[in-house]
Design goal:
- By secondary structure, the chain is mainly α.
- The protein has 2 domains: 31 residues; 57 residues, no CATH class.
- It contains 6 helices and no strands.
- Helix 2 packs antiparallel against helix 5 and helix 3 packs antiparallel against helix 4.
- It is elongated.
Length: 125
Amino acid sequence: MQSFRTKIKDRAKVKIEEAVKEVEEEERQNRLGPGGLDPVEVFESLPEALQKCFETKDIALLQQTIAQLPEEEARHHLKRCVDSGLWVPDGKHAGSQTDEKEEDEERTGQGEEGGEEPVYSTVEK
């Protein structure tokens, strides 16, 4: 009878560990950025100076720090940041008029392909 209880307890431990691993993997999958990388893993792999830039959300410091890195290393880190969603190049600000216009065009099916011609302004010298 005791061996049966021990087997049940051992099997319960294994099942709990499997469930925890499954939940952790689901959370990781939900975090993946547009390039399929986990932002947490990418952030932890960045040099400390770059981590500080992201923590403080200081774009000027980020640009300065990237400029100090060797070009190949800087490209490597920035590509991983983009692929993980940590950095969104040319990101739009929430609630801007451009975002609202794009959302309207998506809803109505208009836009560049919807037949409307883009409007260009001239640059004065």
